[in-house]
């Protein structure tokens, strides 16, 4: 399968508000976050109770193989990697259930606990 890459979209905004001395390790790592096959493979959102009752998410999951073949990728068709893609547009996301991002290798690798928000990216938006 081809790997297509979307550069996360906040790099220029970030440099617009911070000087170089204030760039932390976490900021540098987050700027390097790319939507790629590795992140999609490691993402555990498909097991998460927050979204696994949503019909819309089920449909997106069933179509995921085809959605990943599209060029460019449409992040809103991919029910995973919300820490990079941002919020889900699906209804049926249940905010009262626990987010399981903390069990994900991507979460540890990119120090996402140090970013904002600290999880629930599917309805809080991507990590910055
Ligand atoms: S941190 Fe959460 S949203 Fe990001 S890849 Fe892991 S499970 Fe998915
Ligand atoms: S971002 Fe967190 S809350 Fe949302 S589906 Fe993924 S693991 Fe669950």
UniProtKB/TrEMBL annotation:
What is the superkingdom listed in this entry's lineage?
Bacteria
Q: What is this protein called?
A: DUF2769 domain-containing protein
């Amino acid at each position: 399968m081809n790997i297509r890459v979307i550069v996360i979209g906040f790099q220029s905004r970030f440099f617009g508000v911070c000087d170089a001395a204030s760039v932390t390790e976490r900021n540098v790592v987050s700027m390097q976050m790319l939507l790629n096959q590795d992140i999609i493979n490691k993402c555990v959102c498909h097991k998460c109770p927050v979204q696994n009752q949503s019909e819309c998410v089920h449909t997106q999951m069933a179509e995921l193989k085809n959605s990943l073949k599209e060029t460019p990728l449409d992040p809103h068709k991919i029910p995973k990697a919300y820490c990079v893609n941002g919020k889900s547009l699906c209804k049926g996301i249940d905010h009262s259930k626990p987010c399981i991002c903390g069990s994900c290798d991507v979460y540890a690798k990119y120090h996402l606990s140090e970013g904002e928000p600290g999880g629930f990216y599917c309805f809080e938006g991507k990590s910055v």
